[in-house]
Amino acid sequence: MWKLVNGRLIQTTDDTRVKFRTNVSKSILDQLSALAEENDTYVNYLIETGLQTVLTQGVITFNKKSRPKDRVQYKTTYDKELLEQVKEFAKNHDLFINDVIEYSVKFIDTKNIKDTSYKHRIE
């Protein structure tokens, strides 16, 4: 992200985003990578839209026995507030955060996603 200070552009980190590491299904990540490329965005932006929808609905139907067996480590950044809400949501529903992330993929809204240029915005 860039900030305009005294008529000059200064590159800065976005304090509203935090790094987070979890394990997510490799096949889901592959699908999301293809979808991200089609929509000129990043996988984490796609995941964020799905998570926002799940949180708005406030309901999750997840079968713990159907957890994917192909999970791999996935590191990225998320909106700090959203991640805190997801952590609380997962705790309240007796699930892990990666379960909520994998479930949220069904609710991705490709019409309301940030594009790749979002991280280079000027504020």
Description:
The chain is of the alpha+beta class. It is built from four helices and four strands. The chain has a two-stranded antiparallel ribbon with strand order 1-2. Strands 3-4 form a two-stranded antiparallel sheet. It is globular, with a radius of gyration of 16 Å.
User: What proportion of the residues is helical, as a percent range?
Assistant: 25-40%
List the domain count as a whole number: 1
Give the strand line-up of the largest sheet: 1-2
Tell me the β content: 15-25%
CATH topology: Arc Repressor Mutant
What is the 3D form?
globular
The CATH class assignment is: Mainly Alpha
The mean pLDDT is 88
Structural class call reads alpha+beta
In the predicted model, the low-confidence regions spanning at least 5 consecutive residues are none
Summarize the structure.
This protein is of the alpha+beta class. The protein is built from four helices and four strands. The N and C termini lie close together (8 Å).
List the helices and strands and how they pair.
Blueprint: E1 2-5, E2 8-11, E3 17-25, H1 26-38, H2 43-57, E4 71-79, H3 80-92, H4 97-104
Antiparallel strand pairs: 1-2, 3-4
Helix pairs in contact: 2-3, 2-4
Keywords:
about 120 residues, alpha+beta, Arc Repressor Mutant, two-stranded antiparallel sheet, two-stranded antiparallel ribbon, about 20% strand
